[in-house]
Amino acid sequence: MTITYLLLVAAVMLLTGFFVLNKLESYHLAVQEENLEHTGNLITALILPHLHDGAGPHRLSTVAADLSKQINARVIVVDNNRVVLGDSHGGELVGNSLERTEVEEALQGRTGRSVQYSNLSQQQVLQMAIPLNDQNERLGAIFFATSLNPLYENLTTVRHFFIFATLIAMALTAALGGLFAKHLGGSIKEFTAAARRMAAGKLDQKIPVTSRDEIGELADQFNIMAESLKEMKKRLTRFVADVSHELRTPLASIHVCLQSLQHYDMKPEEQQEFLQDINQETQRLIYLVEDLLELTRREEVEDKREIVPLRKLIDEVLSTAIPRATRKELKLFDKLPDNLPHFNISPAAFKRVLFNVLDNAIKFTPAGGWLKVSAEMRKADVCITVQDTGYGIPEEELPFIFERFYRVDQARSRDLGGTGLGLAICKEIMELYGGTITVESQAEEGSTFYLTLPLHHAVA
Fold this sequence. Notes:
3 domains, Helix Hairpins, Heat Shock Protein 90, Beta-Lactamase, five-stranded antiparallel beta sheet, alpha+beta, 11 helices
């Protein structure tokens, strides 16, 4: 990672330096060309009077030399035939033909310019030629050549600065990258060691949160995960213990009954009584196993979704509950609107929820009582209410009734065949569909269960 950062810093600094140097070179060349062209136009005005006076090569070369000193550039005057009339370098080229592309352009009425490397002076040179006009008559051209050494010396200084800055940036990057890598590497090793200990079964791991950056956030989430796993392990241990306890009681009863039947002589009516006890305990085991299997079928519930009318599901559950309520001398009322929406849910799972709630209401409501099932369309959900006039639930017991294997009245629940898993299953199924199951109750005054399904899961 540090090497990557170093390469990135080097690439950015080099590209930036290349761009800045090119821009500086282009800008200063443009400025120098503009200044030289402007100066050339002024020099043209100074040369013309000497040409009108018929000045010879010596005089023109002397004038060119004076002007050369002022503008720090070589000045050469040529006629329309490219013959040199005056040269600031002591008349060195006087009488010779100056064959330059810049001069050709100037004789055609344009300003010619170029930047070239001079083998003679071994430096970059800016060369320019401008037309020498007297009103509408072209008398020749003036050629300039000036050194670009000052410009490239400045650019070299800037280049050295960028190289130095790049080296400094890379050194700082290497130092900071090393510290960061050490910090990150240490944190990763700590996470790895903690994860290895967790894999070995030691779930009580905790990473110290020493910063509020991403590493600190990761450590925080790791600690939350560790706590969750620890809690899940506790719940699993408690669940296994509860299951073992629930299985042991009926199995112990069955074992005692079988031992008695095997070792003691009994009258037929006594044997029948023991066999009934065995049958009853076996049935309890069947109910318990079925409920345990139901707790593991969440994925099956997801796979068996259908688009079904909610009113139809409720009516089907009521049709199975009415005979049971009648046998127990209970009145069952319903108040259901016709416009209940369709939902994409598992019909069997939802009917299991409603049946469990109704079944509990029937079990724990004494003869002569009543039950009422109603539904209401609200702003955000559909609420199904199951109300009874049963034994009720003490206020201190309400927070626990949706926990697995929890029974409000242990003795009464066992006598009535409860496993303590029904409401836990209902809660998990309702939460699977984004809904809720809640209860209001008072001891000896009855209970009211509320099942809600969010309307954003409804199907038009």
